[in-house]
Specification:
The protein is of the alpha/beta class. It folds into 2 domains: about 160 residues, Aspartate Aminotransferase, domain 1 (Alpha-Beta Complex); about 250 residues, Type I PLP-dependent aspartate aminotransferase-like (Major domain) (Aspartate Aminotransferase, domain 2, 3-Layer(aba) Sandwich). Helix content is about 45%, strand content about 15%. The strands form 4 sheets. The chain has a 7-stranded mixed β-sheet with strand order 4-10-9-8-7-5-6, with helices on both faces. Strand 8, helix 9 and strand 9 form a beta-alpha-beta unit. Helix 12 runs parallel beside helix 15. The mean pLDDT is about 95. Bound molecules: pyridoxal-5'-phosphate (PLP).
Length: about 425
């Protein structure tokens, strides 16, 4: 019996049940993945006990010599992974990393331009219920409704919008956009209107690190990310700068006569701007995950993630589903269920009963509320980590279709659930009692 099981069986049981749920079900949430045991071990280590405000070598607490080693490893591996000048691995999450970007480069009330939440954007890109929309003035660009570019961003429209709203910052990045971005075009628009360019690669960081999607770092002034999605690390955030230099829109400091570098602004926005002590156990786990991502087999994994998504999107199209933009360039697809007469909420709930986990998602030009939605978002990173390949993903697409088509038929849901358990049993995940 583990110490946790002995001392606190209630928490132990909850953890145990969640591990079983992860083992037995088909995890198709596009933002989720499964970390390795070494990453789990680092996260579960006594590094959680350590206060280490500041940066390696410049801490406000004593006794940081060993956590400094861990953070320096995380930083140097991240710089190697993304071929960049500077990183900060301390943000607790993607949202915290993004908050540091706003704090560094905008004043409250300033206008910025981001991708509409309903078109695949993220809450932290100006949603009225998020700090980004509460403190700053958000304007949006979106995807095309019709024509050859349906479901895709038209860069001419982004340029027109930027000219008319004159944003101080333009954000790129999405949670539900299945296509790649034209970073060069975004940068030329930003330069034209005198805006700061920020890329949030939370979803695609792993695919970018593997060199399989366009690289934003040469074009964006700053890039933010999570570390737990395609990058397959612990839950957390990170900030990166391709080439560090003086904040191009910065004012000269009155005393020193100096303009701060972008990296200095971001470092002080993370701490003391927004956070207190960094999570050193998570930073150690980031170092482990970045080490894994530097190995050649991470590239194979990432290529399989994209190949599996491509195959699955094709299978849905063949079965008459309306896949937004007709397919995918990355790890996810967005399915508009309106032609199937089912809402995202209904589909999500029926799939859940067959132990298939997806999330309901707004589709572009949705007429349902965000709580109901007309679509579902499906991603391949997690099940690709478990070793599933193209044949299995084609098969999963058929299982999803069977559930959606027979969503009120308990016998079908039970049969599919049995098939899901059989499939998952062939690809063991965590074959241990975690706690
Ligand atoms: C997931 C995501 C985030 C937020 O990350 P958290 O770690 O959940 O705070 C931010 N931006 C984008 C584009 C995301 O997809």
């Amino acid at each position: 019996m583990s110490d946790l099981q002995l001392q606190d069986p209630l928490v132990f049981d909850a953890i145990q049940k969640e591990v079983e749920r992860q083992n037995d079900g088909l995890e198709l949430i596009a933002s989720e993945n499964f970390v390795s045991r070494p990453v789990l071990e680092a996260m579960g280590s006594p590094l959680t006990n350590k206060y280490a405000e500041g940066l390696p070598g410049k801490r406000y607490y004593g006794g940081c010599q060993y956590v400094d080693i861990a953070e320096d490893l995380a930083r140097s591996r991240a710089r190697e992974l993304f071929s960049c000048d500077w990183v900060n691995v301390q943000p607790h999450s993607g949202a915290s990393a993004n908050a540091a970007v706003y704090l560094s480069f905008l004043q409250p009330g300033d206008t910025f331009l981001g991708l509409d939440l309903a078109h695949g954007g993220h809450l932290t890109h100006g949603s009225p219920v998020n700090f980004s929309g509460i403190l700053y003035h958000a304007e949006y660009y979106g995807v095309e409704e019709q024509g050859p570019n349906a479901g895709r961003i038209d860069m001419d429209k982004v340029r027109d919008k930027a000219r008319s709203v004159q944003p101080k910052m333009i954000s790129i990045g999405a949670s539900a956009y299945p296509r790649d971005f034209d970073y060069e075009a975004f940068r030329s628009i930003a330069d034209e209107v005198g805006a700061f360019l920020w890329m949030d690669m939370a979803h695609t960081a792993g695919l970018i690190a593997a060199g399989l999607m366009n690289d934003p770092l040469p074009f964006a002034h700053v890039t933010s990310t999570t570390t737990h999605k395609t990058l397959r690390g612990p839950r957390g955030g990170m900030l990166l700068i391709g080439k560090d230099y003086e904040n191009p829109f910065g004012k000269v400091a009155p005393k020193s006569g100096r303009v701060k570098n972008m990296s200095e602004l971001l470092d002080s926005a993370v701490f003391p701007g927004m956070q207190g002590g960094p999570l050193m156990h998570v930073i150690a786990a980031k170092a482990v995950a970045f080490g894994e991502a530097l190995k050649p087999d991470f590239k194979d994994y990432s290529a399989a993630v994209i190949a599996n998504a491509t195959i699955m999107a094709e299978a849905f199209v063949e079965m008459g589903y309306d896949v937004v933009s007709g397919g995918t360039d990355n790890h996810l697809m967005l399915i508009d269920l309106r032609n199937k007469g089912v809402t995202g909420k209904e589909a999500e709930e029926a799939l859940e009963r067959a132990d298939i986990t997806v999330n309901k998602n707004m589709v572009p030009f949705d007429d349902q509320s965000p709580f109901v939605t007309s679509g579902i978002r499906i991603g391949t990173p997690a099940m690709t980590t478990r070793g599933l390949g193209k044949d299995e993903f084609r098969y999963i697409a058929r299982l999803v279709d069977r559930v959606i088509t027979n969503r009120t038929d308990e016998d079908v849901l039970r049969d599919v659930r049995n098939e899901v358990h059989e499939l998952c049993g062939r690809y063991p995940l965590y074959d241990f009692v975690v706690a």
